Amino acid sequence: MEKKDKLIELLKKVECIKFGEFILSSGKKSSYYVDIKKATTNPEILKLIGEIISEDIKDKDVKVVGIELGSVPIATAVSILSQKPLIIVRKKAKDYGTKSKIEGELNEGDKVIVVEDVTTTGNSVIKAINEIKAVGANVEKVYVVVDREEGAYENLKNLGIELVPLVKVSELK
After folding, report:
1. pLDDT tens digits for range 25-55
2. Sign of the torsion angle spanned by Cα atoms 12, 16, 20, 21
């Protein structure tokens, strides 16, 4: 069985899609919710996600970026399996110590891939990309476990960044 098919099977098995009435982080109403934490807290699924992304970046000189909180387990798995450095982008600067929004060594000219758990419009990942660009680093691609197919692909493409969904929500329904 191909890894993507296995991932779809496992996402369905842990019931990461819920149907009903939900409010998304964007404030938008939706008839379904992708409860991706059911996947990213499952060691078998997390390892498989890490393997899929790691295979794609194995020959690239990149660092792996995770966005607080949802994609940090994914980025950690990818970092370990690919042996690429890990960077974490916080949603807001901590109010103590270095007061930084970026954890890990990210320098001007570094190439990174960003991993995300779920994308809708892509606004959360775009905020992280802006933080990365402010340091002078370059985003090569964004990998997402589940793309809700509601604009993230197009919004990132408009920034010149490719969104690589491991699974599209239409493949899970």
Report:
1. 778 889 999 999 999 999 999 999 999 999 9
2. negative
- Put residue 27 in one of left, alpha, beta given phi > 0 → left and psi -120 to 50 → alpha: left
Percentage of the chain lying above the pLDDT 70 cut:
99
Six-digit token string for 35: 């409860």
- Beta bridge partners of residue 67, listed in sequence order: 89
According to DSSP, residue 170 is labeled: G
Classify each residue of 100-134 as buried b or exposed e, where b means 16 or more C-beta atoms within 10 Å of its C-beta: ebbbbebeeebebbbbbbbbbbbebbbebbebbee
Length of the chain: 173
| CATH number, span 3-171 | 3.40.50.2020
What predicted TM-score, i.e. pTM, was given to this entire model?
0.94
**Angle between helices 72-82 and 43-57 in degrees, nearest 10:** 60
